[in-house]
């Protein structure tokens, strides 16, 4: 009885306990059902979050264009390959959506990804063993081009998918790279690292958007997906003052001279002296922003590396004397050496101090006499008055050019020898862009303009101009009369029999300019020996009313003993200036040695090939017919356009096919790509040596065309070694 009583009591307790637990659990379920919450968390919202897919809509980074709308930088779509290996991804066995045969998949992918089959197979099998949903293939599977993606898609391999991953792309390669800079992907965002890409990163970047929707286990949208879309706000576009054709010409000749003379440094700037617009700017060493590896020089030397200018400084010394009203060009002085006191090192002319006897100050400028410059400063202008002109030409401050990293030169003006050395470009330093800004006053009737490279910014969607820059006159350090007299003196440097700039003559245009040679110090010691100088030239043309101004400098070129430092500089100057002036339709101001009449084109588009091809070829044009059709649909030039003999005319027919473009210039390749809507990727500079699309293949919109270019073999050119850049200053 005692046992039964105890059993009944325990049973009752258990029953009460279980009933209590049941009521508690039931109550909890009823509460959850009534309120839809657990620990303050809404189950409805939690479910929505679990079945809601959310993706970022990447904002497209703004493009960078040249002054004429040629694309210099844009987001290029690339693709990342991924292989789905989870069998659950396949819903229909007849249409598998996962990798069914790792061995076969690896074998077919290997040649297209340029990687060993064993590596791909190992990645696939390892992923299957670890029960992963998908695998990727490291760097071999990233940044795939559209062409590679399409080739892989043609294999129809199950489970192979692609994710678009844009990268910043620069179609011209090593082209104004220290102006444009480059941008790289950091995690999921492309950010500017150097140049304009860094300077205007916020404007170019835009704002990412997003999309979210509810989906099932197979990632398919529900019937009522509650989709939310916020469109991305793309970055704004930037237009530069750079002219793609002039810049390309400059890059080509700079590359050629870099290979021929292997200098330590080279810098060149082409500018409109009336507006301050920089049309081209380049340095060597440079780099390809598509692959910025092993970069020798990150600095834009044209704006960031102050140097002793050498004798190009003399144009400002003479300008100061003329403006002060104390210059007498026909006054005679004794050249050779000049000594202001026994305690001050004498100044010697660049021919070892021998000089040329008694000469006038005008001839002193033409011959680039250091003694003439020193005497003008010390005896005629006055040291304090000269200092005022140094400041008037803004040599004591940055130009304010709209590029990052600008530096100003440094005035060394404490002792008498420093002061007279500054008059002929030694001791004190300045940047090339400071010289160009100051020289604009000589070319522009005394008005000094501010240099700039950003022309305008444009809304990428509405195409409305957000901000546009205008030419800005900073000051007038000299009068129009002084500028005209200086242009006459600078012309004599190029045209006079004893001038130091005879090698800089152009066939069709008169040139006013000044040569310069400065010494180089390393570890406090002066470098000696042939070629151990920085050689430079600052010239403008046409002389009476300059439309272009150009500065070129070459440091320590590897020149033969029978060559002068002007050899690489004059090659760069003459090629770029002569061709650029013609390209800009600047009227020649002197009779060309061999006048060439332009060819005015007839009506082309819509006519039959047979009627047009011979007509254009007979006139001396280089005609390229693209395709096998009979009628011309597009052409690279239109009715009444004027071309020169030898220029290429591209004619697109009904059925365009890839031509053999070996030997074509980059400009012609870009014309072809524009006419046929090809996605072109140039590599190198110069002229085409290889092409990725075979000759005769039908061209379709968006086809990828990769071309490799190399500079031509340098031509030989006679030089006059009697003058110019033996102008080594003390």
Task: Describe the 3D structure.
The protein is α+β, with helices and mostly antiparallel strands. It has 4 domains: 2-50; 54-240, Penicillin-binding protein 2a (Domain 2), CATH 3.90.1310.10; 244-583, 3-Layer(aba) Sandwich (Beta-lactamase), CATH 3.40.710; 599-710, Trypsin Inhibitor V, Chain A (2-Layer Sandwich), CATH 3.30.10.20. Helix content is 31%, strand content 22%. The protein is built from 20 helices and 37 strands. The strands form 13 sheets. Strands 9-5-4-14-22-23 form a 6-stranded mixed sheet, with no helix packed on it. Strands 16-15-29-28-25 form a 5-stranded antiparallel sheet, sandwiched between helices. Strand 1 (37-38) and strand 2 (41-42) form a beta hairpin. The longest helix has 34 residues, at 2-35. The N and C termini lie far apart (129 Å). The model is unreliable at 714-730 (pLDDT under 50). This is serine-type D-Ala-D-Ala carboxypeptidase. It is found in: Membrane. Residues 700-730 are annotated as: Disordered.
The neighbouring-strand order within the major sheet is 9-5-4-14-22-23
The helicity comes to 25-40%
CATH superfamily descriptor of the largest domain: DD-peptidase/beta-lactamase superfamily
- Averaging pLDDT over every residue, what do you get? 86
CATH topology of the largest domain, which one? Beta-lactamase
Please give the number of β-strands: 37
């Amino acid at each position: 009885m005692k046992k039964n009583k105890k059993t009944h009591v325990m049973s009752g307790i258990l029953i009460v306990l279980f009933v209590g637990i049941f009521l508690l659990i039931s109550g909890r379920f009823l509460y959850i059902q009534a309120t839809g919450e657990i620990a303050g968390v809404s189950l409805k919202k939690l479910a929505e979050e679990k079945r809601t897919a959310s993706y970022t809509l990447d904002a497209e980074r703004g493009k960078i264009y040249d002054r004429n709308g040629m694309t210099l930088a844009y987001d290029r779509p690339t693709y990342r390959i991924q292989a789905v290996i989870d069998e659950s991804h396949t819903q229909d066995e007849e249409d598998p959506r996962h990798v069914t045969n790792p061995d076969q998949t690896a074998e077919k992918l290997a040649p297209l990804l340029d990687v060993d089959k064993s590596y791909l197979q190992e990645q696939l099998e390892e992923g299957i063993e670890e029960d992963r949903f998908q695998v990727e293939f490291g760097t071999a599977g990233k940044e795939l081009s559209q062409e590679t993606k399409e080739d892989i898609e043609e294999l129809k391999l199950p489970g192979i998918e692609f994710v678009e991953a844009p990268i910043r792309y620069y179609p011209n390669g090593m082209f104004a790279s220290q102006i444009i800079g480059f941008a790289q992907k950091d995690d999921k965002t492309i950010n500017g690292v150097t140049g304009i890409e860094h300077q205007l990163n916020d404007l170019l970047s835009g704002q990412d958007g997003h999309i979210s929707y509810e989906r099932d286990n197979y990632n398919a949208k529900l019937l009522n997906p509650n989709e939310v879309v916020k469109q991305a706000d793309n970055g704004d576009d930037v237009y530069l003052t750079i002219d793609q054709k002039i810049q390309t010409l400059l890059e080509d000749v700079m590359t050629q001279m870099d290979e021929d003379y292997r200098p330590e440094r080279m810098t060149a700037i082409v500018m409109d002296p009336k507006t301050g617009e920089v049309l081209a700017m380049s340095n060597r060493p440079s780099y390809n922003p598509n692959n910025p590896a092993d970069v020798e020089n990150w600095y834009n030397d044209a704006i960031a590396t102050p140097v002793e200018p050498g004798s190009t400084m003399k144009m400002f010394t003479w300008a100061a004397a003329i403006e002060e009203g104390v210059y007498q060009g026909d006054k005679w002085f004794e050249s050779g050496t000049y000594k202001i006191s026994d305690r001050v090192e004498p100044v010697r002319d660049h021919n070892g101090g021998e000089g040329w006897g008694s000469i006038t100050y005008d001839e002193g400028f033409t011959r680039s006499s250091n003694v003439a410059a020193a005497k003008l400063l010390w005896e005629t202008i006055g040291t304090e008055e000269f200092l005022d002109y140094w400041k008037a030409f803004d040599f004591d401050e940055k130009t304010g050019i709209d590029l990052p990293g600008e530096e100003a030169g440094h005035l060394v003006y404490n002792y008498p020898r420093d002061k007279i050395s500054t008059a002929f470009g030694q001791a004190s330093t300045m940047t090339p862009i400071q010289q160009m800004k100051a020289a604009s006053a000589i070319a522009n009737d005394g008005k000094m303009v501010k240099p700039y490279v950003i022309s305008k910014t444009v809304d990428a969607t509405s195409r409305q101009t957000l901000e546009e820059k205008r030419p800005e006159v900073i000051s007038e350090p000299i009068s129009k009369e002084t500028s005209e007299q200086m242009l006459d003196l600078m012309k004599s440097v190029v045209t006079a029999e004893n001038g130091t700039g005879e090698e800089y003559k152009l066939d069709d245009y008169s040139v006013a300019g000044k040569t310069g040679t400065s010494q180089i110090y390393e570890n406090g010691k002066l470098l000696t020996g042939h070629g151990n100088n920085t050689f430079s030239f600052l010239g403008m043309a046409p002389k009476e009313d300059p439309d272009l101004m150009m500065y070129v400098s070459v440091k320590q070129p590897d020149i033969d003993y029978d060559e002068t430092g002007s050899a690489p500089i004059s090659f760069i100057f003459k090629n770029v200036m002569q061709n650029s002036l013609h390209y800009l339709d600047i009227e020649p101001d002197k009779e060309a040695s061999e006048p060439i009449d332009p060819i005015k084109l007839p009506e082309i588009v819509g006519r039959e090939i047979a009627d047009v091809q011979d007509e254009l070829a007979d006139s001396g044009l280089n005609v390229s017919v693209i395709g096998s059709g009979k009628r011309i649909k597009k052409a690279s030039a239109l009715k009444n356009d004027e071309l020169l003999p030898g220029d290429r005319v591209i004619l697109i027919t009904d059925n365009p096919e890839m031509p053999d473009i070996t030997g074509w210039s980059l400009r012609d390749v870009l014309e072809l790509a524009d006419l046929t809507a090809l996605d072109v990727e140039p590599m190198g500079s110069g002229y085409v040596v290889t092409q990725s699309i075979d000759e005769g293949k039908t061209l379709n919109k968006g086809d990828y065309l990769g071309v490799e270019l190399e500079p031509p073999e340098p031509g030989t050119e006679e030089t006059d070694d009697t003058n110019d850049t033996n102008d080594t200053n003390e």
